[in-house]
UniProtKB/TrEMBL annotation:
It is an enzyme of class 1 (oxidoreductase). The lineage of its organism: Bacteria, Bacillati, Actinomycetota, Actinomycetes, Mycobacteriales. The keyword Protein transport does not apply. GO terms for molecular function: 2 iron, 2 sulfur cluster binding; 3 iron, 4 sulfur cluster binding; 4 iron, 4 sulfur cluster binding; electron transfer activity; metal ion binding; succinate dehydrogenase (quinone) activity. It comes from Corynebacterium halotolerans YIM 70093 = DSM 44683. This is succinate dehydrogenase. InterPro entries: 2Fe-2S_ferredoxin-like_sf, 2Fe2S_fd_BS, 4Fe4S_Fe-S-bd, 4Fe4S_Fe_S_CS, Beta-grasp_dom_sf, Helical_ferredxn, SDH/FRD_Iron-Sulfur, Succ_DH/fum_Rdtase_Fe-S. Its cofactor is [4Fe-4S] cluster; [2Fe-2S] cluster; [3Fe-4S] cluster. One of its GO terms (biological process) is respiratory electron transport chain. Residues 150-179 form the 4Fe-4S ferredoxin-type domain. It comes from the Bacteria.
Length: 249
């Protein structure tokens, strides 16, 4: 299968970038987007040319490292799949594919398709933890939690922090990411002591680095973990709860 790729090339954060056209005459439908880039880079290395920089790690849809834009859409054409799981089976011989870094003001480009997503980490640093008593581990039945609540918490804990929700949002909002963390931690029996503090600090950091929620749901459409759009409401709900209960909560 022959494909024409337009791949973003940018030497560094302070340099201007541009698309570079690459012809791939021997792409295979079973290739993932990342394997396609590997294939291109192997050829460039053989020709003593600089390969394209892009991020990846586990390539199993778990780590969230492999975020990039494919034809203007985070990760690729298929819904709720990371780039490492997006295959070329949906493309035809002669198709054009545009590959570029995730586009958001909160994600400065480091090089080529590698971006700095530490703004998401700063949100987590403000409240992504729980208080526990140090010592031996408690018995399994010490803290009671019903099955439905545990499943709901796990559904929101599935967020892999890839940041696709931000790139998909026209306002560059990270409410789906932050909301998923707030829901997860608010449902767990541990960490109740800092629930209000967590909400205030995480939402403040969210609003410092990201835009306002557009309410259109583009974020849930591309989320590889399938985080439900209802997680967005937790940002307002948890902040309102914290304001009502006061600073001691």
């Amino acid at each position: 299968m022959k494909l024409t790729l337009e791949i973003w090339r940018q030497a560094g954060p302070t340099h201007e970038g541009a698309f570079e056209t690459v012809e791939v005459p021997d792409a295979v439908p079973q290739m993932s987007i990342l394997e396609l880039l590997d294939h291109v880079n192997n050829r460039l290395i053989e020709e003593n040319k600089e390969p394209f920089a892009f991020a990846s790690d586990c390539r199993e849809g778990i780590c969230g490292t492999c975020g990039l834009m494919v034809n203007g859409r985070p990760h690729g054409a298929e819904q709720n799949k990371p780039a490492c799981q997006q295959r070329l089976v949906g493309y035809n011989d002669g198709d054009h594919i545009k590959l570029e870094p995730m586009r958001s003001a909160a994600y400065p480009v480091i090089k080529d398709m590698v971006v700095d997503r530490s703004a998401l980490e700063r949100v987590m640093e403000k409240g992504g933890y729980v208080s526990i008593n140090a010592g031996t581990a408690p018995d399994a039945d010490t803290l009671h939690m019903n099955h439905e609540t545990a499943e709901l918490a796990l559904d929101h804990a599935a967020c892999i922090g890839c940041g696709a929700c931000v790139a998909a949002c026209p306002n560059g909002a990270a409410h789906l990411f932050t909301g998923s963390k707030l829901v997860h931690l608010s449902l767990m029996p541990l960490g109740k002591e800092e629930r209000g503090k967590r909400a205030r600090q995480m939402v403040d950091e969210l609003e410092t680095n990201f835009g306002h929620c557009s309410l259109y749901g583009e974020c849930a459409d591309v989320c590889p973990a399938g985080i439900p759009l209802t997680a967005v409401s937790a940002v307002t709900k948890e902040r309102a709860r914290a304001a009502f209960r006061g600073k001691d909560d």
